[in-house]
Amino acid sequence: MQLRSKLASATILFALAMACTVTGNAADTKPGASVSTPAAKIAFGGTGIKTGAGELNAGPAYGNLGEGKHGTFIRMPAGYVSPLHTHTAEYFGVVISGIGVNAQAGVEEVALPTGSYWFQRGKEDHVTKCISSTDCLFFIYQPGKFDYLLAR
């Protein structure tokens, strides 16, 4: 199947890089414990995913994005445009600050200002952008581990 071939030949496996560097705050608490984390305490780290605009940074809320279900803050530099890519698992995104875009190949782009959300099906080619003059901050929830697979 062509889609499986794309996934098998992916050149970037984001989850492998992140599994060693980013773990969620939930790992630091007992299972089922309530957690309140001020924004200043969210530990962002580089992802290794870069364009001319800079690097994506990830900050865990809970879970480990390299292992499975997680909630993660994504800081995207102003002007960042991802290459066409997919993820194995679906995910939900919320724009906390800035203006983002998440568009499937061949579909009209829709500006997503602060407070907007999107749903991205797994295994579907798409591009994600920060089109504001300031950096974007997104929160994503994903029921499976995160990977970043370049489209071919």
Structure, explained:
Helix content is 9%, strand content 37%. With 152 residues, it is mainly β. The protein has one domain: Jelly Rolls (Sandwich), CATH 2.60.120. The chain has a six-stranded antiparallel β-sheet with strand order 1-2-3-9-5-7. A two-stranded antiparallel sheet has the order 4-10. Strands 6-8 form a two-stranded antiparallel ribbon. A hairpin with a 2-residue loop joins strand 1 (45-51) and strand 2 (54-63). The longest helix has 7 residues, at 2-8. The protein is globular and about 45 Å long. The two termini are 14 Å apart.
Number of helices: 2
| Total E-strand runs | 10
Question: On the 0-100 scale, what is the average pLDDT?
Answer: 83
**Class by alpha and beta content:** mainly beta
C-alpha end-to-end distance = 14 Å
* Helix and strand pattern: HHEEEEEEEEEE
Instruction: Give, in spatial order, the strands making up the sheet with the most strands.
Output: 1-2-3-9-5-7
> What is the alpha-carbon Rg in Å?
15 Å
Described by the principal axes of the CA atoms, the overall outline is globular
- The CATH homologous superfamily corresponds to Jelly Rolls
Main beta sheet: 6 strands, antiparallel
Number of folding domains? 1
- The CATH C-level class name: Mainly Beta
Q: Provide the β-strand percentage band.
A: 35-45%
The CATH topology annotation reads as Jelly Rolls
As a percent range, the share of helical residues equals under 10%
Low-pLDDT stretches: 1-27
